[in-house]
TrEMBL record:
Any one Gene Ontology BP term: polyprenol biosynthetic process
Membership in a protein family: Belongs to the UPP synthase family.
Organism: Polypedilum vanderplanki
Full protein name: Alkyl transferase
EC id: 2.5.1.-
PANTHER family xrefs: DEHYDRODOLICHYL DIPHOSPHATE SYNTHASE COMPLEX SUBUNIT DHDDS, DEHYDRODOLICHYL DIPHOSPHATE SYNTHASE FAMILY MEMBER
PROSITE patterns: UPP_SYNTHASE
Catalysis: reaction(s): n isopentenyl diphosphate + (2E,6E)-farnesyl diphosphate = a di-trans,poly-cis-polyprenyl diphosphate + n diphosphate
Alphabetically ordered keywords of this record: Magnesium, Transferase
SUPFAM superfamilies: Undecaprenyl diphosphate synthase
Transmembrane segments: none
Length: 297
């Protein structure tokens, strides 16, 4: 069990060598993880489910240490889906508590490591105490730039896309947009992931080969890597294997990225849309500040 608790960040000679070698090839800028298998892992060790999630969250801390060493700039993790609200109240409460505790515990470390945290999902579905910690974490790390960490929490892709379209419909109703402005770039810009770079590599652990309503819009040129390792068992070697798989599929992924032109334009060449998007960003920021302030008082 110690190997799972071990928070040692120093890598061995062979691990460093492997990283050096992998860095000779193309490195995914943005990697997403479906962190699956915490409960099965806990069962294997006769532990309860929340202990499985605890070890799972420790693995995420390690991922955040390994990724910058490899040259990965953005990490998105699926921590809690809207579907997960259907789990037992005890388990849901335990995950909420763990999430709050980890965000508070890691606050200092996030700053030291220059990590910018963004929680993507329907934040209104979260209890007040979780909203407060989320708003705090996002606001206090917003100027960090070494690594972007997006935590999908109360997230589902279909809800995200629906929300994006609702935002646009409201814009049309309020005469901020016209219907002709609606295109895939605008839908993209109204998603929770609007500031993210394209997802280059998506990794799912535990042997399941499903997307479970995760980033469905964002992955037209993404390389998918599935491993049978349960999330708490995921090691640097699994991560390097995933990156190596990406490198072997790089030419095809690059061609697809060019095909879908997945480079985010700084402006859309449409002043009306640019103004709408700037307002949307401001509204989202104001909402976070209010979430933080209202809950404090
Ligand atoms: C998937 O395994 C895991 C989850 C649904 C929860 C993951 C949550 C965390 C790791 C805590 C989040 C904390 C932070 C700081 C982001 P599973 O429960 O579906 O396991 P199974 O597939 O074996 O049933």
């Amino acid at each position: 069990m110690n190997q799972y608790k071990n928070n040692e960040t120093k890598l061995s000679f062979f691990e460093n060598l492997a990283i050096k070698i992998i860095k000779q090839g193309p490195i995914p800028k943005h990697i997403a993880f479906i962190m699956d298998g915490n409960r099965r892992w806990a069962t294997n060790f006769n532990l309860n489910k929340s202990e499985g999630h605890e070890f799972g969250s420790e693995k995420l801390s390690k991922i955040l240490k390994w990724c910058p060493k490899i040259g990965i700039k953005e990490v998105t993790v699926y921590a809690f889906s809207i579907e997960n609200f259907k789990r037992s109240q005890d388990e849901v409460n335990a995950i909420m508590k763990l999430f709050i505790r980890k965000l508070l515990e890691k606050e200092q470390e996030l700053h030291e490591k220059g990590i910018k945290v963004k929680v993507i999902g329907n934040l209104d579905m979260l209890p007040n105490d979780v909203q407060k910690v989320v708003a705090d974490a996002m606001l206090s790390t917003k100027d960090n730039s070494k690594l972007n960490l997006n935590i999908a929490f109360a997230y589902s892709s279909r809800e995200e896309i629906t929300n994006s379209i609702k935002t646009i419909v409201e814009g049309v109703e309020n005469n901020e947009l016209i219907l002709e402005d609606l295109d895939n770039v605008l839908i993209d810009e109204c998603l929770y992931t609007n500031q993210s770079s394209p997802v280059d590599l998506l990794v799912r652990t535990s042997g399941e080969m499903r997307f479970s309503d995760f980033l469905l819009w964002q992955v037209p040129s993404t390389v998918f890597y599935f491993t049978t390792s349960l999330w708490p068992d995921f090691t640097l070697w699994h991560l390097l294997a995933a990156v190596f798989y990406y490198q072997r599929n790089y030419t095809q992924a690059k061609a697809l990225k060019e095909h879908y032109n997945q480079t985010r334009p700084a402006i859309t060449n449409n002043p009306r849309v640019d103004k709408f998007l700037a307002n949307l960003e401001e509204k989202r920021c104001t909402k976070l500040v209010e979430m933080n302030r209202l809950i404090k008082s």
